[in-house]
Amino acid sequence: MGLHLRVLGVCDSRSILVANDIFTAELGDSSLHAVCRVKSSGVSLSASSDGFGGDCQVLSDSEAPRKVVDIAGLLGRSTGLVVVDCSASPETVEVLKDVIDHGCCIVLANKKPLTTEMKDYEKLLSNIRRIRYESTPTSLCWETGYIDDIVQVGAGLPVISSINRVLTSGDPISRIVGSLSGTLGYVMSEVEDGKPFSQVVRAAKCLGYTEPDPRDDLSGMDVARKALILARLLGSQLDLSDIKVESLYPDEMGSTAMSTEDFLQDGLASLDVGMAERIKVAASNGCVLRYVCVVEGPRCQVGLQELPKDSPLGRLRGSDNVVEIYSRCYKDSPLVIQGAGAGNDTTAAGVLADMVDIQDLFK
Amino acid sequence: MGLHLRVLGVCDSRSILVANDIFTAELGDSSLHAVCRVKSSGVSLSASSDGFGGDCQVLSDSEAPRKVVDIAGLLGRSTGLVVVDCSASPETVEVLKDVIDHGCCIVLANKKPLTTEMKDYEKLLSNIRRIRYESTPTSLCWETGYIDDIVQVGAGLPVISSINRVLTSGDPISRIVGSLSGTLGYVMSEVEDGKPFSQVVRAAKCLGYTEPDPRDDLSGMDVARKALILARLLGSQLDLSDIKVESLYPDEMGSTAMSTEDFLQDGLASLDVGMAERIKVAASNGCVLRYVCVVEGPRCQVGLQELPKDSPLGRLRGSDNVVEIYSRCYKDSPLVIQGAGAGNDTTAAGVLADMVDIQDLFK
Fold first, then answer.
1. What is the largest CA-CA distance in chain B?
2. In whole angstroms, what separates CA A178 from the centre of its chain?
3. Mutate to test the interface with A, among B84, B169, B347 (most CBs of A within 10 A)
4. Which residue in A354, B32, B197, B259 has the fewest CB atoms around it within 10 Å?
5. Over the stretch A8-35, which tens digit does the pLDDT of each residue have?
6. For the ranges A55-59, A353-357, B247-251, the one whose mean pLDDT is highest
7. Where is the Aspartate/homoserine dehydrogenase NAD-binding domain positioned along the sequence (chains A, B) (predicted)?
């Protein structure tokens, strides 16, 4: 495509590797390969004894975020500089707000900055042309991440851009229903086939489909963040705490009351009968059980729903994500977007597409 | 959205109504309402005795296209001026190429300019940031149109933008399969229910789902144009004549050999047995028959295919459009986009979204 991406810096949670001359130089392939080696070994860039090449330097602690903001101030308004947040941290929001103040563009795979306080959201979206976050609503996220900044994975289904397109065309969206967790999609389609809930969750963990503690998926909070991003996109002034979230395990099995091991060995099994019963009830109504988000007017909720077998969501199998968008034009038959919802490749692809898309501002 | 669209001119096939002062003035609501009244009565703007207001004038014949190109030359490069082609005519391509030469943006709902000669396509796409044509691949088009420029209808499913996004992210697309005709989608799902082909086509005509001569739908040529737009987007150097197109009626029932009335009364009925037979064969293979386009590498074909009942295309009912996109990231499970594929509202919405989208170039 004749595209050249000039990488000025790479951050982890404690440091930044940055080109010495930000106006003309860049981190070359050898420096970037060195970064990958260091991070794969679980070490902070600032703690690495590896060299990254002579044309760049490592800054750490408070110097790192300040450097990002400085560069944004120097290059952000006039060049196609993009600050990309692929972390899973709520702590990046202050840097992102400063960067936005400088008129710089941002691309997020990280859901946290968009799902904390409404005033932060409004600030980040204050120049809607300078932000893209297509990888946030259909991504799967491991938050424990010792490889901190490289662990966020997810997909770039064109959900945000499609919703924006519908809204831009003056077609009001009345309702969004989605299955936004590949993990819970997999779990619900396996239990539908008659397998015990506990067995399915344990298998999903073995296959690497869940977070290290599967309760981080089963709580529904990750889906709630995705739902909140969609609700706010439609203009809702909601906070995360306003969303009704159904957890797939009871409070007394929470992480403060029970270790991950105990939950997997004992806790989970006690949920099998209840889940099997709910599936039986759904089936007797000609329905299947799906873990979905529903955004409708000021209402936003996340949890299990009985859905007709022959609806796009009811037909869903495996770990695909599906989003149904209902509007004036898509009234009886929704606009449906479906596809794989997780994977390093797809997140990287989604973030890259966002970065290129934003370059129209700097033709 | 704080958006103000300044309409400088409106064309029909023989004339243009244009603001006198293109630098500051615009066609106001009263002028535009007058245009709608005149065109609804089937009269050319230049032949109308109605006044359109004092701040605009009507130019006709060769003056009209020249005026469009002149305005593009004056405003196209530096402002967000967009020339929009909602006609169904192959004749607009020369004006569009001139306009592109001036660095002006274009938005097309008209498939013709993109599906004639490859060199025209390349010219129109020579600045890919300055063209949008999201309404072309999933639109239904009446070509006979006595209300010439207002008859093109179709939808804006986010197909082009999604394909561009996947390509931009460096994810190569291997295959696109789509049901791109709401009319043929409706026909095939009705005959699947056991109704005779002839009866279904006649009913579709009565309901206004087909063109005045239903053979314009049944020939598959409209779908072939849509397929060609997708194939060219993937880099194919194909022409329309390279596409293998299956017509749903034999050559001897073509419009040169048989009137529309004869075709509807006699010709159609003779096709019932053959269609019923094919559906029976498909069903015995656990499949349903769908009229689809397949774009795969340098190959592009359009026609009836037996598809598994439980695939996104096999499950399709009614007049929805569906597009399945297979790539490296979407390998086993495609990216699927589905929704209503026709309607004045949805075309208007699609064109408007394209016009707004392109404004990022002129922030």
1. 69
2. 14
3. B169
4. B259
5. 999 998 899 999 999 999 999 999 999 9
6. B247-251
7. 59-128
- Per-residue pLDDT 10s for chain B (363 aa) are 678 889 999 999 889 999 999 999 999 999 999 999 998 898 899 988 778 888 899 999 889 999 999 999 999 988 999 999 988 889 999 999 999 999 999 999 899 999 999 999 999 999 888 999 988 876 544 333 333 333 332 346 889 989 998 888 888 999 999 999 989 999 999 999 999 999 999 999 998 888 889 999 999 999 999 999 999 999 999 999 999 999 999 999 999 999 999 999 999 999 999 999 999 999 999 999 999 999 998 899 999 999 998 888 998 888 889 999 999 888 888 999 998 866 667 778 888 889 988 888 886
**CB distance A168–B357 less than 8 Å?**
yes
3-state secondary structure of B125: coil
- In the set A226, A280, A309, A331, the catalytic residue is A226
Q: Which of A171, A336, A353 sits opposite B168 (nearest CB)?
A: A353
Which residues lie below 8 Å from residue B138, measured CB to CB, with a gap of 6+?
B154, B155, B156, B157, B159, B180, B226, B321, B323, B341
Please state which of the four CATH numbers 1.20.1560.10, 3.30.360.10, 1.20.120.610, 3.40.30.10 is assigned to the domain occupying A162-340: 3.30.360.10
What CA–CA distances, in Å, run from A289 to A188, A319, B307? 7, 15, 27
- pLDDT at position A146: 31
Q: How far apart are CA B297 and CA A216, in angstroms?
A: 42
DSSP letters for A141-164: --SS-TTGGG--EE---SHHHHHH
Q: How many residues does chain B have?
A: 363
Residues 222-261 of A with CB under 8 A from B: none
Q: Please tell me the least confidently modeled range out of A204-213, A225-234, B77-86, B259-268.
A: A204-213
For residues A1 and B49, which has the higher predicted lDDT (pLDDT)?
Answer: B49
Say if residue A233's pLDDT is above 90: yes
Q: How confident is the model at residue B343, as a pLDDT?
A: 64
**Domain B163-340: CATH superfamily, name plus number:** Dihydrodipicolinate Reductase; domain 2 (3.30.360.10)
Q: Which of A328, A329, A338 sits opposite B336 (nearest CB)?
A: A338
Whether residues A168 and B328 touch (CB distance < 8 A) is answered with: no
**CATH class held by domain A9-156+344-362:** alpha beta
- HEC profile for A179-215? ECCHHHHHHHHHHHCCCCHHHHHHHHHHCCCCCCCCH
Q: How far apart are CA B154 and CA B344, in angstroms?
A: 7
Could you give the 3-state DSSP secondary structure of residue B356? helix
CB contact under 8 A, A158 and B165: yes
CA distance linking residue B132 with residue B127, whole number of Å: 11
pLDDT of the residue at B140:
45
What is the residue extent of each domain of chain B? 9-156+344-362, 163-340
Read off the amino acid at residue B342. Answer: A
Interchain CB contact of B155 with A (< 8 Å): yes
Q: Which residues have CB under 8 Å from B293's CB, separation 6+?
A: B176, B177, B178, B180, B223, B224, B226, B227, B230, B300, B301, B302
**Is B169 near chain A, with CB under 8 Å?**
yes
Structure tokens at B176: 């696109």
Cross-chain Cβ contact A315/B315 below 8 Å:
yes
Taking each helix axis from N to C end, the angle separating B63-75 and B93-101, rounded to the nearest 10 degrees, works out to: 20
Is residue A94 over pLDDT 80? yes
Taken in order B267, B269, B272, B274, the sign of the CA dihedral is negative
* Residue B123 annotated to the active site: no
Is residue A24 exposed (0-12), middle (13-18) or buried (19+ Cβ within 10 Å)? Answer: exposed
> Cβ–Cβ of B158/A156 closer than 8 Å?
no
